Amino acid sequence: MRSRVQRQKRKKMHITLNGLICVVLVLIFIAAGKIMWGDSNQASTDNRHNLTKSESEQRNQQNNDTTISKDKEIELKNQDKKLRENKKTKEQQEAKRIQKDSEEQATKKQKVEKDREEQKAKEAKEEREKHNSQDEEKVTGPGSSKPIGTSQTGPHTSSYVKDSVDWNEKVKAIQMATGLGVNMNIWRIENGGGPQKSVGKVSPDGEDSWMYVVNLEWVDQKGWKVTSVSKQNR
């Protein structure tokens, strides 16, 4: 009987030990599972973290690339703008240079024309002075001429009627004194300061810048006498 009870006790003990062993094994399995699950979760978390980090880096890289692209675009636009401005500046400078050259050429041309005109005027003046000098040799002084004679008789009355006898004799005396002959332009013949004195103002045909001034005096029975010849500007 005693032996039977002991066997039952040993059996219960074995059952208890086996249960405890099962419990320990279960606990071990649970712990191992937690460890494995935790590692798996950690790995998944790490993977997600790594993936998130990679995506963030990729976005940052894309943002950086976009920023660089925009910066390059802005730089290219600025370079293009600068090139256009430089081109415009060069065109303006070239236009100013052309205008300046044109103005200088116009000024030179005007100066050449002015110098030419001044030279012509100088030559014309010299020619007139030469002509005047030659004519002055013909000018007579007071009392240097003789009366030209007359067809008039009786008391003399000076006449200023054109083509009258007295008028024609005055013209003849002037022609002889100046040497102009019939090639003479008569500006006027007028009283010379007395009843028997006259003055004639004449020029060569085609000349209107100067004239001879011829003073005449009547000599009874002998006609008109030239007392002086001078030249004046008109």
From TrEMBL:
InterPro entries named among the record's database cross-references: DUF1510
Organism domain of life: Bacteria
Biased composition (Polar residues): 147-161
Compositionally biased region (Basic and acidic residues): 46-58, 68-139
Signal peptide: none
Region (Disordered): 44-162
Transmembrane segments: 15-37
Annotated coiled-coil segments of the chain: none
Protein name stated in the entry: DUF1510 domain-containing protein
Biological source species: Fictibacillus enclensis
Taxon lineage: Bacteria, Bacillati, Bacillota, Bacilli, Bacillales
